[in-house]
Amino acid sequence: MLSRLGALLQEAVGAREPSIDLLEAFVEHWKGITNYYIESTDENTPAKKTDIPWRLKQMLDILVYEEKQQAAAGETGPCLEYLLQHKILETLCTLGKAEYPPGMRQQVLQFFSKVLAQVQHPLLHYLNVHRPVQKLLRLGGTVPGSLTEKEEVQFTTVLCSKIQQDPALLTYILEGKKTIGRKASREATASLREAASVRDKDRPHSKAPDSGTCGAWASNTQLPAETQEPDGAIGESSLITTLIGLCKSKKGRVALKARENLLLLVSVASQAAATYLVQSSPCCPAIVEHLCQLYQSLPSSLDPADIAALEGISWRLPSAPSDEASFPGKEALAAFLGWFDYCDHLITEAHTVVSDALAKAVAEKLFVEILQPQLLHVSEQSVLTSTALLTVMLRQLRSPALLQEAVAFLLGMDQQPAAPEDSPRTLCAHLIRHCDHLSDEISIATLRLFEELLQKPHEQIVRSLILCYLEGRPYVARGSPEPESYEDTLDLEEDPYFTDSFLDSGFQPSAKPPPAPATNPDGKTAVTEIVNSFLCLVPEEAKTSAFLEETGYDTYVHDAYGLPYSLNLQVTSVLSRLALFPHPLIHEYLLDPYTNLAPGCRSLFSVLVRVIGDLMQRIQRVPQFPGKLLLVRRQLMGQVPGEQLDHQTFLQGVVVLEEFCKELAAIAFVKFPPHSPHLHLSKPREGHV
Predict the structure, then answer these.
(1) What pTM, to 2 d.p., does this model score?
(2) What domain of life does the native source organism fall in (predicted)?
(3) For the chain, how are helix, strand and coil distributed in percent, rounded to 5?
């Protein structure tokens, strides 16, 4: 047969009409396929061991060759016309659905993919092409671990590529009303009967059975029960659901290619196509449904430390790194975070219409319907796990649209201070109260959530959480004169911690500040005075950093999850994050120790002064305090074994406090360079933080 095709192609170059020879060969191969179903009696022979794959390959080659020989681009040749008019794709789709012979579906998927990819003439606009394409899509993507996953993903790759080139094709491929029912199946069977009955006129010496035999086969052969479809049914499966199904494949390459195809589909440039995806397809609901299923499959007993420590998860590499320690639920957590990262990437890359709709769907279905009840639950385990999961989601989140939805979910749409009775701000008010929860674990987890939130580039975050409390400077005393001395500013005599007995205890600040702060020409406090104010807070007797090299605030963070001092460390971490924000009101309230506070108001510096006062009183009750404090610092740095000591939590707190004051001094120094004035309280531009 191969030599016959070669001869036909050679003759096409000669005096004979090329279209006649190519069409004859094309029809001959198609009849060869239909004859197999008439003549074969062995139902167990795999399709790849029959001549069907070879004949399909010859038909494809003829179609491609015919197109290259066309004088004018865009014309359909006789073979392509025959393919369309005789509904060959429809018939092949029916045969693939019946899976007879075994493996026929694989052969059909390959033929469809190659025809659509290699034939340059636009085909998907034709009813007799996009209708069998719809039907073929319904056969795949629904059963995990299908033997045809590779061919299915290749088929969807071609379709998504065609849609990317011509977004108008989207409606042809996804339109549910044209999904094949019994009528299409009957048409396909009729085309089989017609193709097999064309015999003596084109091939007079054929030994194939007569048309009566073919008709009998077509009339009597029944497809499997699952292939029968009700009239007018709209199939639930489509290109979208097929891709979602393939994204769940256990085969990494198949899943990755399916995700790339879906990404290609949602990033169509056409406004109309994007609107169609959102309004007339299961695109957003199907993607978010899978996300919610993965979340709900997570074990309720996940350790927050394990959740926070799992890094390096992305949609391209959704499995957890093998070199990390294993823990119960690790694979499920990695699968969820991988799909969440994929959703975030889809929202980033998709058309704006799709992006906004998908972000809102994630917020509604995952954040509001699932996460919010868990965050407000009475069960501490539920609150702890959901808070840790929300934190790691914020850490992975990159898309502006999803960030906007996350901020609205956590903080509400308005920018007023949180109040429990204010409905849109109920969740925010609860989370703020969780920062001072009876459970230290919940307090730490919630503080980490806010620290992660504060790192996100969104104006409403800092405005809702901080600036709405500082605007108008209500913390500053009105009409009071400038303080004449540092002592007057701090009101040490009125502070209950700074009593006569305390001052007579022998513990004095490491370096008493000058009587009055130095100022710049504009009347603002000099940066050196601010830096010294924080550095001088901790008395010399409570300092140990000078005795060791390579110490620093970050030294103690690596193992904070399992040590007694983690809550204090998390509090100082959030405060340091706040102090870094470039806003004059935040500068003044958190970093200027000389602010004249209004009655009843506290600043970070005034609170630290009181903490130091309490610390210096408690030091007197710790025997051998300097030696024990140095030992604890070395333990925190991992230089000596973690031996249990009396007052260990208190001693660890002293170390953290010293490092925190040094951190604040460093922040002040970086934000207020000595050569420039600081705390310039000019009103920020509208819309800027």
Answers:
(1) 0.78
(2) Eukaryota
(3) 65, 0, 35
